[in-house]
Protein: Malate/L-lactate dehydrogenase
Organism: Gaiella occulta
Amino acid sequence: MREAPATAKEAYARLLALGLGHEAAAVLFDHFDDAQRRGKEGHGYARIPWLEEQPLDRGARPLKVSSAPGVDRWHGGGALGYLTLAAVCDDLVAHDPGPARLVVASSCFPTGALGYWVRRLAQAGYTALLTATSPRRLPPPGGGAALTGTNPLAIAIPSSVGEPLVADVSMGAVTHGDVLAGRAAPQELVPFGGPHAHKAFALAVGLELFVSALAGEEHGAVLLVARGEHDPVPAFRKLAADVRLPGDARPRRA
């Protein structure tokens, strides 16, 4: 596998060379560059060498297959999960989802840093919760074969003042992206929590089966988006004072 790009210019050029088109390359670059700038190298440029080795369907496009009151269903159609979630977010921002909407995306992988997607929605004024499944890499705390993906959960709450609050947590002590970036060894990919790892594993199992029940056997994603009726973030930031809150790019000053 090739080395990760060293610069943003190289990263974009290599994404463009995948042959997915300028629009798709721009979507992918924005996601990877955002992760890189936030210090999440495992979801940043380190993903590009991995993508270069995947059998890509260059003509694939995600499709919204149905829309009912409160529920949208999408299918990746062979497109990268990044592009499916980008299409989902574009659609929700362009068409008011109403008080609340559940979006089920089947055949949606890889999905990248889920916090990136919910942040987009929060910046548009929506409260959002997103989870997604991935290849089985997480063993039970007692050891044995991997049973679930790292199955992250991301939550974003918009704010009338400043940036939204974004919490994005993987159920693994490290992520597969950390392994790809060389920041962790494969054997470190276990449920987080040490002696309390059964809690992270329980959540990983619950999310695995929740998404599978709605999206099917292939890897998928489930998103809940709603228009909040309250604005709790400014008061919480004041309460937290100089504590760095989830999703903040740098420590906040009082």
